[in-house]
Amino acid sequence: MNRRLPRNVKELLDKSIDSATQAISTYNDPRSSFRTGNFTVLMIIAWTAITHAYLEYKKVNYFYKEKNGRYKRIDGDKMAWELSRSVKEIFDTGDPIRKNIELFIKLRNKIEHRNLPALDKELIGESQALVLNFEDWLIEKFGEQYALIDTLFVPIQLSRSLKRTLPVSKDETSVINFVKDYRGLLEAEVENSQQYSFKAYLIPKIGNHRSSSDLAIEFVKYDSDNPQEMEKYDEAIIAIKEKQVPVANINFLKPSMVLEKLKEEGYIKTMSWHTDMWHKYKVRPTNDTKNRSSCKSEYCVYDKPHNDYLYTDAWVQYLIEKELNK
DNA sequence: TGTAATCAGTCGGATCTTCG
DNA sequence: CGAAGATCCGACTGATTACA
Length: 326
Fold this sequence. Notes:
The chain has 326 residues and is mainly α. The protein has three domains: 7-191, no CATH class; 210-248; 252-324, no CATH class. It contains 13 helices and five strands. It has a three-stranded antiparallel β-sheet. Strands 1-2 form a two-stranded antiparallel ribbon. The longest helix is centred in the first third of the chain and has 23 residues, at 35-57. It is elongated. The structure holds a DNA duplex (20 and 20 nucleotides).
């Protein structure tokens, strides 16, 4: 796709790239107080424009028509597909990229007119993925020369600002819960993919000599085709995980213990009720499915040696919140 | 507008399966 | 064999729809 692009494709592409870079710069501006909101709106514009550019290039008609075959018009202009429609055309239903975009479409409607700073922290992974997917897709469809800008750096973080918890308003809680519910409905595979939400550890880099530590932060593409490299990262990740477990003090509960816990809180429920609930919220696979380990890790883990499932305190809280406190 | 029919969700007990 | 957990099934309830 290296030959010159048709003019209208190029125009859409420019608009798209411009919006995306604006989005990133708003997000990274330390003074920004409407971070996720502005970022979301601009990135939606960016994605809308790039999908239009792609459809235009592929000669797909992306305008709405009236029943009589004429174009729908708004103030005289042809009415183009909104992002949710374009995304349906381009990506499969289960595609993490699509799920990621759809989250932000829904989010935009919720946050456009509100200032919800507590949301920023909640959505770091998804926001990062939205941008990375954008750039990957841009390069894949239109070529390397359109890569966003080669001067983007990882912003410097003030570690305290991440640790400090801001007071969370009622409005924010409701949107945060919306995000959590959305995640809850995803297949484990999608939720854990880097395309849906980008997760990374920031590991201090210790160089033996000047040149190797020149670049303080380095992005390494997780390349599953290079097993030797990957092994190194897996080791690092395992080292981090092992340290995390005792700190997080994760309590795993057997089903009967879940019921005990609920009883302590004053809710008396039966085992069959609990079975219904994990069915309802798709927390773990049923016994007849092959892949037994695909649980929603927030609420449930598969205990291989015992061939059964354990549930978390978060699951108990979730049940109280969703089912018992209505 | 009122009543009957239908449906989805919930609940709890009986029963089945697995494992130590 | 017994405990734990999953599954099945019938009863109940409240909301919605159909119909006289």
